[in-house]
Records
---
Amino acid sequence: MNKTTPADLVSELAEAIAAGRYPVGSLLPTEFELCESHGLSRYAVRKALDELQELGLISRRKNVGTRVESTKPVTGFTQSIATVDELAQFGARHVRVIRSSEWLVADLALARELDCPGGTHWLHISSLRMDDTPSARPICWTDVYVDAAFGDIDELVRQSPEILISSLIEARYGRAIARIRQEVDAMLMPAQLARELQTDVDSPALRITRRYYDTAGELLEVSRSIHPANRFTFSMEMSRSREQDR
């Protein structure tokens, strides 16, 4: 029986992909073929394919076709942040699972990475960020470096997995985070993190480095998060300044 709605087509194709009738790497029928076989308009077929692509099941390329990428939907995460307060709300939705913590002294290589003086002392905390959805895959791996002046923050971090470390520093020590410098770059997933993040070695990944400064401009914390590329989208909106519009 022919399907009559885009939702029906999405359901049918998703089930066929999950059942292996369209294996990963194979091509789905063309838009024209789907229109003919299901009695749908080209607009309706494209709408259904858009939804499948949003789910991470397929990809579409001009002159190539619609390729099956996964047998089950990919859990994704879209982050849209404009203020320090909005960043703090992130922790309430995604909990931290600590993998290790250690004290270290920044050698020259680490000092360059953190943009801090060599020989300074830091608490290094490694953790996974997890969605609260049952059986969801990890969102990212995060390495956080905290100034040694906040030495007893380690226990608080373990007791409050839903609160960002920067927020814990503010609450305990009264050191307000006034500015965050963020850098985003592309990389390949390292072998040592691929298993933790349940993804492939050398698959595309995004690395986000944030440096947290207080009102005096002193560096209090550095975090470096590594996200599998297909599970993270950073959304940012920009507006033309009023001065330029005049």
Note: The chain has two domains: 6-68, 78-235.
---
Amino acid sequence: MSNLETNVDDVLGWLADGYLRVETSGIEHIPATGPAILAANHSGAWGFDGFVLNKVLRRELTRPVHLYADELVFRLPALAAYARRHGVFGNDPTLGRDRLTRGDLVGVFPEGMDGVGKDFSLRYRLRPFHPGFAATAVLTGAPVLPVSIVGAEETFPKLGEIGALARRFGLPYFPVTTPLPLPAKWFVTVGEPIPAPAADPSYARRSAAARRLCDEAWVTVQEMVDRDRGRRRTPFW
């Protein structure tokens, strides 16, 4: 790694351990071999949860997880280089189907930008999941592992947005948030796998099965988020 990438990695490690005090559970649900899709909620004004999740999983697992990211992540060369080096990919409408076919792990944020773009008043209320990941699960037979992330909403709360700056930089929104991350307590929880239904030759039935899988994953992640929020006495405990 370059010095800059090493520094980014070191800062992420310090933030996860000493500042955000990230507590993980359910890692044993991630299979040691074979494909699986990790589907996580997405929140916080800058989408910082993606980098924290990537860091935590790289330390906890003996195999890589390839996280899918929006093209915005790849606009800054230094950030893009760091992301690619650590398994982050984008610009793939199949959401990692080739990787899953090879037996790899793929991580997605099915809320997309809607998750990180919601106002703080709507914190921890998941936006609808885009069903693409579920369609990929059905086609590849990969189980879906629900992942709950609690803490990102308070670390970078989205208090508003500035439309002029969003248009200037070509962003879906430009958030009004804190200049530095706040020291919220984080929980990252991996739930039990949800098996993918068999791929039906009928496109209509296959699509219906994918939507049912998508809805089940959404409900499961929302329930996990609700439960983990209740584990904190205060957001900054």
Note: Strands lie at 23-25, 36-40, 65-67, 105-108, 144-150, 160-161, 175-176, 187-190.
